[in-house]
Amino acid sequence: MKTRTMTALGAAAAIMAVGGVVKADDPVNMTVVSWGGAYTESQQRAYHDPYMEANPHVTIINDDGSANALAGLRAQAQAGNVTWDLVDMLPSDAQLACDEGIIMPIDHDAMLAPAPDGTPASEDFLPGSLGECFIPQIVYSTVLTVNHEQFPDDKQPTTIEHLFDVENYPGRRALQDRPGTNLEWALYADGVPIEDIYDVLATPEGVDRAFAKLDTIKEHIVFWTEGAQAPQLLADGEVAFATGYNGRMFAASEVEGQPFDIIWDGQIVEWDGWVVPADGENVDQVMDYLYFATDTQRLADQAKYISYGPARASSAPLVSTHADLGIEMGPHMPTNPDNYYAPIVLNNDFWADYGDELRERFANWMLQ
Amino acid sequence: MDDQTTSSGLVTADGQPLKRSLQRAERTRKLTALALVGPLLAFLLVIFIFPIGQMMWRSVDNPQIVNAIPRTLEALQEWDGEGLPDEPVYAALAEDMRADAELPRREQWMGRMGVRLNYELSGARGAIARTSRAVDEFEPPFKEAFLDAHRNWGNPELWQILEREGRPLTASYYVAALDREYDSEGKIVLRDENRRIYVSLFGRTLALSGIILFLTFALGFPIAFYMSTLPMRYANLLMICVLLPFWTSLLVRTTSWIVLLQQQGVINNAAVAMNFISDDQRYSLMYNMQGTIIAMTHILLPFMVLPLYSVMKNIPPSYMRAAKSLGAKPWTAFRRVYFPLTLPGIGAGGVLVFIISIGYYITPALVGGQSGRMISNEIARHMQQSLNWGLAAALGSMLLVGVLILYWAYNRLVGADSLKLG
């Protein structure tokens, strides 16, 4: 509430300050909202720096607001003062924002670069990834990771089932404090085939079954909220298992040398990408930037800095080695065939429909 | 002459009636005072009162459904509330959906209505989204077309919700905030046991705040007492020790507690090294209620110590000597003379600590795990993640009213004018 009033005041000040018309080559400050940390760093090096080099009049300012992107977009739209030019967010939230009309619809073929061989953008991006207002950048996954020092060499956990097997794989488990991913894994570990998980979860019996499975490990769970907490808990030896984003787990294990092993079994796969707030001041510049930043080469470049898979099919063959470490990035990608053997593709339609109810149930379960 | 004096009373030297002259002087004084507090008052109005008013308004504001489907709501008035409505209602709904799609995106209400309805019924959002994309191809009879498009259009519950919530104001956020819901006859009943959250969380928040209040008092009283008896030089040194953590960033202090309390942390490692406990029996000091209590007691301690100290400093030591010289034992003198004089400080510190801890959320979120969470964590979750701002506003308003009631009760029992903040 406070910030809304503040932004409203800011809006008045901004209107008074701008006054004149902005010409094409006048300096442009572009505010790009993203997730911060290693992820923003990868965007800075793969997209922002080369773009600013080619367009010296543009300055890109990073804002680490993506965790609350939808709340921020709503507040700015309601206050009539849109200060964000480009926002990195999840497709489920992007669909909500799109329905509310606070972000721009995207004509993918007209606005984005075709693949080098001429394939139009709408066919080059991975199937199902494009949204009405959403341009995917990466495929990321939520994975189970273990600290291998906590288990004997001949008894390392390797599957989601082991997460729920406290007897053979003792130690605490760090799970995210929300139902998404946890309920899917509970059912998967309980023997539900991957393709049936969401059908089962849509029934009251299925929900009971998932919570009953979670009950079996409840006293061993430590809940995390922020993405950075999971690798921290695992590195400190506070927990033996942690769920987390594969890029952060990669950074901890490969860049920082933590004794982590990623378990790709049951990895929960989702997209992440750009949306453009409606009524921004620099829309033309933003569209120009997007054409550049989402082309085949740029998406492949981002994978030099972080282990998220590019969202274009044509980028995959161009993925090379890590810019600083020199290791092959292919084997660390969630979409690598060796890792993609049992993926659960996050069903955003399901969570749009059942999320409100299941979040309440999950909050109740956590408090019990 | 005589007449004039009696009718207008006393006059000043320049012939003005004294009453009016005094009034004028008083008015100037009041205006000066207002001009002095004016900026702060305006600041408070804009930054404090206005947002609180907005929050309360949002907790009952319900524009989505009335704006999205006016024609349908009108047609629904004919409906008896049993089973499914008839064809005219579905036809009106199709018309509403088509009209909404014609509007510029920013003015469309259908998507927002879907989000709103999903709070009441799972799957409603999907029903609206999928149907509004297909509605252009619908042909009469519309009832069948809708039932084919999504199963929820055949669910009487959805229609009951539309009828109940199809007005500009709603109580349903408060109903949900009290762990209650409407049953099929429209009565307010308790929610299913596994969806109740908030009432027990309010209770826990009060209980935790009470424990923290007691601990800050138990720890703060002796410190403040000791400081008040020391000569100024040493008292100042101790005061800096109290204030130093107070000046450190909240996040730094919380993270330091994580370093100390975690299972592989300093305290546990020391206990293991000294053979108090074996390696596999490490204490769980955080990610539970203990974590919240320990960290918050530390963070809020200065709020108790400072008012206590300022009150104790002003109690003349001669009172205790007088009590003793009149034959009281030290304990009696303390209990009957000294302690009652510290009550204003205890009251002020207590109110501060209690009210601040009721609304705390960063520390519980970081060290509280599941059992150490408080109501503000739920409010923050609804503000930032589930984006159910109406429910967040209802919870926030209830918290505000709760604090006001507590303050009122305190005022009745102890008297707010006895507060002494230092």
TrEMBL record, chain A:
**PANTHER family hit by this protein:** ABC TRANSPORTER SUBSTRATE-BINDING PROTEIN (PTHR30222:SF2), SPERMIDINE/PUTRESCINE-BINDING PERIPLASMIC PROTEIN (PTHR30222)
By what name is this protein known? Extracellular solute-binding protein
Record has Signal as a keyword: yes
Q: Which Pfam families does the annotation name?
A: SBP_bac_8
Q: Which UniProt keywords apply?
A: Signal
How far does the signal peptide extend, from start to end residue?
Answer: 1-24
Q: Is Signal among the key words of this record?
A: yes
Ranges annotated as spanning the membrane: none
From TrEMBL, chain B:
Any single GO CC term annotated in Swiss-Prot or TrEMBL for this entry: plasma membrane
Q: Give me the segments passing through the membrane.
A: 31-50, 205-228, 234-252, 292-312, 346-367, 387-410
**Biased-composition ranges for Polar residues?**
1-10
Q: What is its main location?
A: membrane
**Stretches the record annotates as Disordered:** 1-21
- Domain ABC transmembrane type-1: where? 202-410
Compartment(s) where it occurs, according to its Swiss-Prot or TrEMBL record: Cell membrane
PROSITE patterns in alphabetical order: ABC_TM1
Q: How does it sit in the membrane?
A: Multi-pass membrane protein
Biological process terms in GO annotation = transmembrane transport
| UniProt keyword annotations, A-Z | Cell membrane, Membrane, Transmembrane, Transmembrane helix, Transport
* InterPro entries, sorted: MetI-like, MetI-like_sf
Instruction: Specify the domain of life of the species encoding this protein.
Output: Bacteria
- State the family named in the UniProt similarity comment for this chain: Belongs to the binding-protein-dependent transport system permease family. CysTW subfamily.
Q: PANTHER family, per this entry?
A: ABC TRANSPORTER PERMEASE PROTEIN (PTHR42929:SF5), INNER MEMBRANE ABC TRANSPORTER PERMEASE PROTEIN YDCU-RELATED-RELATED (PTHR42929)
Spell out the protein name for this chain: ABC transporter permease subunit
